[in-house]
Amino acid sequence: MPRVLVDGPALAASPDGNLVAALDGDRLALWDVARRSVVAEAEVPAGSLGEVAFVAQPLRLVTVARAGGGTVLRAFAVPSLEPIALLELPSALRPLAFVGARVVLASDDGESPRVALLANRSFVADVIALREPALVAAQAPEERLLVEARGQLEFWDLVGKRALFRLNLPLPPALSSVGFTARGRLLWVATRGGRGRFEVFRFSDGRRQLQIDLGPPIRAVEGSPTTNRILLALGGDGEPVELTQIDLGARERQAIPIEGTVASFVTIEGAHPLVVIAPPDGALGFVSLARATGARAQPLVGGAGSAADETMGPRP
Fold this sequence. Notes:
Elements: E1 10-13, E2 19-24, E3 27-32, E4 37-43, E5 48-55, E6 60-67, E7 70-77, E8 83-89, E9 94-99, E10 102-106, E11 114-119, E12 122-127, E13 134-140, E14 144-149, E15 152-157, E16 162-167, E17 175-181, E18 186-191, E19 196-202, E20 208-215, E21 218-223, E22 229-234, E23 242-247, E24 252-256, E25 264-268, E26 274-278, E27 285-288, E28 298-299
Antiparallel strand pairs: 1-2, 2-3, 3-4, 5-6, 6-7, 7-8, 9-10, 10-11, 11-12, 13-14, 14-15, 15-16, 17-18, 18-19, 19-20, 21-22, 22-23, 23-24, 24-28, 25-26, 26-27
């Protein structure tokens, strides 16, 4: 959910990279990536802090938005955007992560965690005993959940609603986002505010692979689950945003040439990788991530650092 501006559109890419969904206010649009055109649209009753994601099999789109002091989840068929499910929750919640057919939600202060499961043509909501406050989370390999709480990362089985183990890593303060890349072999963490700090750990044993100070604050991060690519939006409040891609395999950093203001972005992998950019207003832009079209790649400046204080527990 890499949104650069708080009020920017929410973007999501389908697992095969053929479709991009954009939720902007009360308008949900489905774009065909190859044709660079809208193939379906739907009206979503006005809400705030909306998010969108592709979930489940068969493929569905789920939107989450605040409305009237509560939270509303909607599901749509793909590619028709026919409405198929609706869930209204009485409290104001935000999505922490989309995991398989499930949405993990919590209040702004990380309290009252819930899990909403899209089952066929309806949602089923239930509580989950995450340690509170649960502030940062991400989908983990095998459709499980990685969640930060009280300075620790926990690996959860959402089907059994139980914690499997904790990751004993030296986490930085003010953690803003976490995620997996390189087919689940690497785990990255990023901080918010100040000078952007970005770290990468090997998931099998918790050893730090990279620690770099990016300089400008990190506004948003997205890591590719299938490649070694990380895309970051850098820049302080009121400053122009710089998009930078990091190749963890080649240990290189490269600026992505963009024009205009970036409100949100999402990456598309495949034979011709792209970053899809949403401006504050207007149509989506499609920018190649191929090295030949960008600025010269620079070696990453930052060492591996020391190993984690304790190794991770065994993967289940």
